[in-house]
Structures are given as C-alpha cells and as structure tokens.
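The instructor's notes for this session suggest beginning with a concrete chain rather than abstract definitions. Hand out the sequence below and ask the class to guess, before any prediction is shown, which regions might be ordered.
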Amino acid sequence: MRFGGIVVREVLARGWPLTPENERIVREELRARDGMAAVAMLAIPVLREALESHSNIVIDGLYSWSEYKLLRRELSAELIVVAVVSERSVRYRRLGKRKERPLSEKEAESRDYAEIEKLEKGGPIAIADFVLVNNGKRKKLIKKLDHLIHRLEFAPA
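After discussion, reveal the predicted structure:
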C-alpha cells in the first residue's frame, strides 16, 4: 500500500489538479483534522484486510512518528521499517527530472522542511530497522532490496 495514494485520491476527489501544493494542503488538512497519524488511520482497514490473506505486506510512504506508533499498536504483525535515503543533491536532481509532479530545487527543499517540521518525518527514519542508501542507479537499489528480502526470509523468527 502506498500511503501517498490516499492523499492523491483525496486531491482528485476534491476535483483539484494533482500538484505538490495540493498534495501538501490535503496532507496538512488531514493531519490537522485527525492528528499526525491520519493517513495511517485511513489505511488501517485495508492493511488489516491485506494481512488476512498475506503474511507480508509493504507500506510505502510511512512519514510520521505518530503513524509508526499507530501501526505498531493497531496491527497484530511485526513491523519492519526500511528507510531508503539518498543525498540531498541526488534527491533534488531526481525530483526535478521525474515525469509526474517534478519539483524545482526550491520546491523540494520547501517540501523537505515541511515534512520534517510539520509531519514528524524524521522519526521513522531514525527508528528504521534497515537503511538503504540510494545514490546510484535503480538496478543497484533493487539489488540491495533483493539482498535485504533474502536476509529477512532466512532470519530466525
């Protein structure tokens, strides 16, 4: 499940264009209304259903410390957090080149500040069980992910 998809669906449901600014507005409104774990709260029913038929699920976009704590409390499953990080210059260059919703360096920096200051984004990164550095090619990251998955599959329970 992609947590960002919940925000995207809300932007589109409002009939708004899908822009970084509109996504920010929706994220901040959801959290102002329902608290910092708002997106995770909306996802809990879907995650519970997925866990009924799958032993493992992947959540993309866990941003806030409150979301992390809610998932730990509400899901009767082990939660393993993998932080995928890259150097700021690499991230900003990639954000500027992406086809959907590209960001200027100024927009990317503004988003970073907002995510750290308003969305508690540092907590899940700081508590991550594993950190993968993604400064290179996509194939290199996929290889790191494959290695991690293999490691987790054969880890003692």
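Then share the key points. The chain has a mean pLDDT of 92. The two ends are 24 Å apart (CA to CA).
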